[in-house]
């Protein structure tokens, strides 16, 4: 089968003193083998919680999967115990984070940290693991890999540390790499280099990637498909072209207008979306974007919009798709 990962109607909550925070409220998507999917949305939209749930990295309690399932390579891993997950993590699914310093061990040489997974999962002997570690450092574009393998994380620059993280993540040749804001902490030039590197490795190793970001601009080159999340739900998903050239959801319009772009006049760039996302302890029963949407109608506040298929693989949840809705000009299509 071509489908590597399937997330089906996933609902994840956190039980807090203030009440039940419904962080993920029925999210569905899939990732094919070797494909890159971007999950895009503002902070707090549930994208990281979704990723951490796939990896079983959220503490339960206070977290809880209320509904839905995660199927990876034919296995329903959302039912796995921590012990079973240990065997998957780092071997079949790896994850990298925004800040390598929080996931790299500051007291262990970088080469050793790459070797750990190889010894644990691939049962490699030390010598072989060491050779592979150096090969991985070379593969991620770190000069003098043999010397670098003997150094500690603090001797690496930010960009080099992120490369080392990628080397650790990919050492066991996982089928899926989940990258949560992998370039957010880096400056723009280094960001582009890391994205290029991930794209190169995706092709070379045929690794599927889920890249999670608040910045749509980052994913245009690397992703084949994009899922846009808002307030714990996917409000629109489609191919990169669907989302960049034919977006249908007002929130996606807003995201696109807040991406710095060179092909649009200065005064049209970087329009922030006004307002804040809803409280996920008491989420609105209608469209979660209604309070911030310029086109909100009466029904938007009353009923969650059903999924409309715009095209193969292009879906949107918005009442503007209803045949009775007024005709609203699509600002993204208009300006091109
Ligand atoms: Fe705006 Fe209504 Fe569409 Fe929500 S459903 S995005 S409020 S028009
Ligand atoms: Mg996050």
UniProtKB/TrEMBL annotation:
SUPFAM superfamilies: P-loop containing nucleoside triphosphate hydrolases (SSF52540)
Membrane topology term: Peripheral membrane protein
PROSITE patterns per record: ABC_TRANSPORTER_1 (PS00211), ABC_TRANSPORTER_2 (PS50893)
A Gene Ontology molecular function term of the record: ATP hydrolysis activity
One Pfam family of this chain: ABC_tran
GO cellular component assignments: plasma membrane
Assigned keywords, A-Z: ATP-binding, Cell membrane, Membrane, Nucleotide-binding, Transport
InterPro entries, per the entry: AAA+_ATPase (IPR003593), ABC_Ni/Peptide_Import (IPR050388), ABC_transporter-like_ATP-bd (IPR003439), ABC_transporter-like_CS (IPR017871), Oligopep_ABC_C (IPR013563), P-loop_NTPase (IPR027417)
Entry's Gene Ontology BP terms: peptide transport
Subcellular location: Cell membrane
Residue stretches making up the ABC transporter domain: 5-256
Gene3D superfamilies in UniProt: P-loop containing nucleotide triphosphate hydrolases
Family indicated by similarity: Belongs to the ABC transporter superfamily.
Protein name: Oligopeptide transport ATP-binding protein OppD
Organism of origin: Caldisalinibacter kiritimatiensis
């Amino acid at each position: 089968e071509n489908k590597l990962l399937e997330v089906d109607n996933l609902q994840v909550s956190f039980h807090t003193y203030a009440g039940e925070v419904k962080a993920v409220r029925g999210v569905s998507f899939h990732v094919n083998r070797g494909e890159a999917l971007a999950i895009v949305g503002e902070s707090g939209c549930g994208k990281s919680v979704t990723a951490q749930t796939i990896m079983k990295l959220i503490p339960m309690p206070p977290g809880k999967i209320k509904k839905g399932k995660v199927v990876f390579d034919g296995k329903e891993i959302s039912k796995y115990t921590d012990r079973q997950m240990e065997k998957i993590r780092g071997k079949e699914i790896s994850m990298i984070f925004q800040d390598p310093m929080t996931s790299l061990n500051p007291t262990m040489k970088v080469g050793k940290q790459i070797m750990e997974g190889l010894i644990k999962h691939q049962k490699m002997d030390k010598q072989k693991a060491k050779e592979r570690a150096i090969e991985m450092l070379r593969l991620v574009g770190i000069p003098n890999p043999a010397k670098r393998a003997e150094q500690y994380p603090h001797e690496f620059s930010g960009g080099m540390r992120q490369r080392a993280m990628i080397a650790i993540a990919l050492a066991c040749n996982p089928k899926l790499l989940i990258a949560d804001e992998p370039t957010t902490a880096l400056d723009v030039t280094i960001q582009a280099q890391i994205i290029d590197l991930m794209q190169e490795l995706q092709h070379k190793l045929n690794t599927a990637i889920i890249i999670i970001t608040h910045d749509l601009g980052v994913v245009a080159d690397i992703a084949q498909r994009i899922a846009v999340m808002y307030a714990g739900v996917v409000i629109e998903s489609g191919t990169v072209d669907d989302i960049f050239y034919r977006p249908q959801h007002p929130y996606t319009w807003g995201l696109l207008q807040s991406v710095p772009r060179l092909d649009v006049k200065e005064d049209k760039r970087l329009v922030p979306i006004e307002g804040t996302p809803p409280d996920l302890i008491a989420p609105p029963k209608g469209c979660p974007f209604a309070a911030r949407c310029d086109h909100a109608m009466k029904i938007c506040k009353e009923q969650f919009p059903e999924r409309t298929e715009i095209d193969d693989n292009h879906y949107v949840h918005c009442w503007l798709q209803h045949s009775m809705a007024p005709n609203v000009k699509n600002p993204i299509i208009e300006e091109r």
